[in-house]
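To make this tangible, this section ends with a sequence with its structure tokens:
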Amino acid sequence: MAKKIAILGGGESGVGTALLAKKEGYVIFLSDKGKIKQKYKDVLENNEIDWEEEQHTKSKIFDADVVMKSPGIPDSVPMIIELREKGIPVISEIEFASWFSDTPVIGITGSNGKTTVTSLVQHVLKQGGVNSGMGGNIGNSFAKMVTEEDRDWFVLEISSFQLDGIDRFRPHIAILTNITPDHLDRYDYKLENYIESKFRITRNQTEEDYFIYDADDKNITSWLERHPVKSQKLPFSIEKKIENGAYLENENIVITINNTKSTMPTSDLALQGKHNTKNAMAAGMAAQLLRIRKQTIRESMANFQGVEHRLEKVLKINNVLYINDSKATNVNATYYALESMESETVWILGGVDKGNVYDDLLPLVNEKVKAIICLGVDNEKIKASFGNIVETLVETTSMNEAVQMAYRLAEKGDNVLLSPACASFDLFENYEDRGRQFKEAVRNL
């Protein structure tokens, strides 16, 4: 008898799972409470997959042997609770895909930097001649790649929501970039729960696997003291010397793995700033584990183009630089952005607040920000936090309005920085849509 799978969510992960499930002979039912995008409907139709939208037919869902839920659906919704009570396994697409692939995985998670590190690892592997595929939380779903691509390695960006639904998934190399409060609305507003979720990436690792992590991150180090991991630990730090791992010495990155040492001046890195030094350390160690030549690693780090919507320089107009950092959906990401600003900055922020605390930003805002432009439906918290620090604080309700306002407020030599510190769902489809609208508005100035 063919196994039955119910798939909740008709986006990238849902449709990827459907394609893989079809290949593996499952009977499939895909259900989305909202509308499914046309491009995904076409794939479902072409592959003769049973689907529905704008409703959940419970009888069909509860008839399944296993349920894959999209990362956007919280564990707390009644249907998920009911499925688990009935003993029907509810898993993530990452977990499902891992059942049908023996290809080793480099899995990257963290509150910030994961897209940059994932893209950087893939860039180095490609330049080093490794046949690797990149996806997960960015680009193609893992399931879709397992269905279509024959690779020697998979490089996956993995969110905490995806890790919440794993059981056996085991990356050979796990990278944890950092842990700062984010998405706490999904974790009962408890940082502990969120940290535990991130550490699930190491859950099935053995002594043969590797765990690369930020040794300067208190949330990570204190968790490790209380919860040992089985894998071989490779910490990185810009504050202290590290025997086996990576550290900073006289502005050089020093990587030592199993007595093999390599160095690289930070001045050679394509991406500047302290956080990018750490991103380079993490990616450099993964590349060294795959025995990619040191010279290739150095060259790759020097010619990496960066990630769209992450401190992306858009245009200079009247000697004002416009920077798109729409991917900064939490306070910590914005902290890095402000820290890297060299000139006076007009800062555009706001959106859906995920329990933000802005205190850490106050000294940076004091030092670097001349004006704040709020771009969100509810800006009360931003006004309360920064109203007394900056001379100018204005509210806007569209990207065009925000960019026009920035154009008026910025003077020669200033930066205009879109770094929202919030999710985008009040005014935009997602952070990409927000970033593209920003670039469009800047080009129309």
User: Anything to note?
Assistant: The longest strand covers residues 369-375. The chain is about 35% helix and 20% strand. The chain has a mean pLDDT of 93.
